[in-house]
Design goal:
This protein is α+β, with helices and mostly antiparallel strands. It has 10 helices and 18 strands. It has a single domain, classed as Beta-lactamase (3-Layer(aba) Sandwich), CATH 3.40.710.10. A hairpin with a 2-residue loop joins strand 3 and strand 4.
Length: 430
C-alpha cells in the first residue's frame, strides 16, 4: 500500500470517511468531517445533491462541478462530479482549481476590514486621503453631452465596499477572466488608475448600487495602506493563516494540471470557452476578480466568517467586525444582479427577505458568486456553509444559484437553533 501524501490524498481520505459515515474525523490539513446525522443533516437527503448536479451534466448545462456542504464547521458532503476538461476526458477531482472570478470580492473586502480593525481609517472617511485623484472627480449626468456636476458627498470606504461609490471601472482592454490583456493593457492597478484619472464618476456616491467597479479600489486601498501588493497581503494575512494552499492570482506551473476548463452555452448544450493552459504571470492584482482556488480552500474562508472571524485557532477578524460585514449597508437600494430580497453588506450580499428572494436560506445569510459558475454562502442561523464550483460562462441558463440552496437546505432535519433571525442594517446608504 502506498503512503498517503499530498493534498489530493488527504481530500480523498476525507471523502472516503464521509462515505463510510465516520462520526467525526480530522484530516492532516485541518479539515473536519462528520457523519451528517451527527450535525442534524440527513445523509439520505444529501444524495439529492448528486442527482441535482448529475442532471445538469446530463442536460449538457455544465461539464462537471465540485460541491461541499458543512454544518457547525464539519464537512458532511464533498463530491466531485463529471469532468473538469471534457475534451480530454479528465475527471473532476475534489482538489480541482477553479477561476473564482467575483468570489475574489469578499476576500478583498476582508483584507480591507483587517486594516480597519487596526485603526487605519473609519468606514465613512473619504478615500481621497489615500487616492487623491478621487477628490477631483465630478459626476457624469449625461453621457451624450458630457455634462458633469459636483459630487454631493465624498467617496468613502463604505461606498467602495458596497458598490455604491459611483467610481469608473479600471483596466482594459479585457481578456480571459475579465482582467486586462494585451500589449496595451496596464501592468498594475496603479497604472490603470492613472489611465482613468480623467474618467468621471458614473453616479452620485452613496445613491446607486453599481456593479462591479468598486472592489478594484478596495485592492488599491489595501496596497496603499499596508505597503504590500494585494497578492502579498492576501498570502500573508489570509491564505497562509487559513491554510488556503491552492488559492492564487498566479497559479504555480506545478499545479496547472489541476485547473478546470471553462465552458459556455451553445445551442442546447455547451462548448469549450477556455482550455486549461499556462498563463503569463501577472502583476495586476484586482479586488473584483483574479483569484483561482479550490472548493475546500474557499470553504476555509467562508467558515472563518461563519465562525465570527476565526478558523482552527487562527483569528483574522473580530466577531463584531464580521457582524458588521454581514449587516445590510445600503438600505433599500435595489441590487440589480440578484433581484429582490437582498441587501448588501461589506463585500457580499445579505439576505433580508427570504419570501422575496430565490434562495432557500435564512435571514442574514451572506453570499456571493462568480461569473464562471462558482458560488458560496453561509447561513449563520443554521450554521450552514455551502460551496459549489463549476466553470460555465454565463451560468444563468442552468439556474444553479437558487436550486443549489434548495438541495442543501432540504437536507437539514433537526430543529432550528435558539438563535432568533434578525435583519441588521442601515436605514440609508449614505
Amino acid at each position: 500500500m502506498k503512503p498517503i501524501n499530498g493534498a489530493r490524498a488527504v481530500l480523498s481520505l476525507l471523502v472516503a470517511l464521509l462515505l463510510q459515515g465516520a462520526v467525526f474525523a480530522a484530516g492532516e490539513d485541518g479539515l473536519v468531517t462528520a457523519a451528517p446525522e451527527s450535525v442534524g443533516i440527513s445523509s439520505e437527503r444529501l444524495k439529492r445533491i448528486h442527482a441535482f448536479v448529475q442532471d445538469l451534466i446530463d442536460r449538457d448545462e455544465i461539464a462537471g462541478a465540485v460541491t461541499l456542504v458543512a454544518r457547525r464547521g464539519r464537512i458532511v458532503h464533498l463530491e466531485a462530479h463529471g469532468l473538469r476538461y471534457r475534451e480530454e476526458k479528465l475527471p473532476m477531482q475534489p482538489d480541482t482549481i477553479f477561476h473564482l472570478m467575483s468570489m475574489t470580492k469578499p476576500i478583498a473586502a476582508t483584507a480591507l476590514m483587517m486594516l480597519w480593525e487596526e485603526g487605519r481609517f473609519r468606514l465613512d472617511d473619504p478615500i481621497a486621503k489615500w487616492i487623491p485623484t478621487i477628490a477631483t472627480k465630478h459626476v457624469q449626468v449625461d453621457a451624450a453631452s458630457g455634462r458633469l456636476e459636483p459630487p454631493v458627498r465624498p467617496v468613502t470606504f463604505r461606498h467602495v465596499l458596497t458598490h455604491t461609490s459611483g467610481l469608473p471601472q479600471l483596466g482594459g482592454p479585457f481578456g480571459f477572466g475579465n482582467v486586462p490583456h494585451g500589449d496595451q493593457a496596464p501592468k498594475t492597478l496603479w497604472e490603470a488608475l492613472q489611465r482613468a484619472e480623467k474618467a468621471p464618476l458614473v453616479s452620485q456616491p452613496g445613491e446607486k448600487f453599481q456593479y462591479p467597479n468598486s472592489l478594484d479600489y478596495v485592492a488599491l486601498l489595501v496596497e496603499k495602506i499596508s505597503g504590500l501588493t494585494m497578492d502579498q497581503f492576501l498570502r500573508r494575512r489570509i491564505f497562509e493563516p487559513l491554510g488556503m494552499r491552492d488559492t492564487f492570482y498566479n497559479i504555480p506551473p506545478e499545479k496547472f494540471s489541476r485547473v478546470a476548463a471553462v465552458y459556455a452555452p451553445a445551442g442546447k448544450g455547451i462548448e469549450l470557452f477556455w482550455k486549461p493552459q499556462p498563463q503569463e504571470p501577472t502583476t495586476y492584482f484586482p479586488g473584483r476578480v483574479g483569484l483561482s482556488g479550490t472548493a475546500t480552500d474557499y470553504f476555509r474562508f467562508a467558515q472563518m466568517l461563519l465562525n465570527g472571524g476565526e478558523l482552527n485557532g487562527r483569528r483574522l477578524l473580530g466577531r463584531m467586525t464580521v457582524d458588521l460585514m454581514l449587516t445590510n449597508q445600503i438600505g433599500d437600494l435595489p441590487i440589480t444582479v440578484l433581484g429582490p430580497g437582498y441587501g448588501f453588506g461589506l463585500g457580499g450580499a445579505v439576505l433580508t427577505n427570504p419570501a422575496k428572494s430565490a434562495d432557500a436560506l435564512s435571514i442574514g445569510s451572506y453570499s456571493w458568486g462568480g461569473a464562471y459558475g462558482t458560488l458560496f454562502w453561509i447561513d449563520p442561523t443554521e450554521e450552514l456553509t455551502g460551496v459549489l464550483m463549476a466553470q460555465i460562462y454565463p451560468p444563468a441558463r442552468s439556474n444553479i444559484r437558487p436550486l443549489w440552496s434548495v438541495v442543501v437546505s432540504q437536507a437539514v432535519i433537526d430543529h432550528r437553533s435558539d438563535q432568533k433571525p434578525k435583519v441588521m442594517g442601515r436605514k440609508t446608504p449614505r
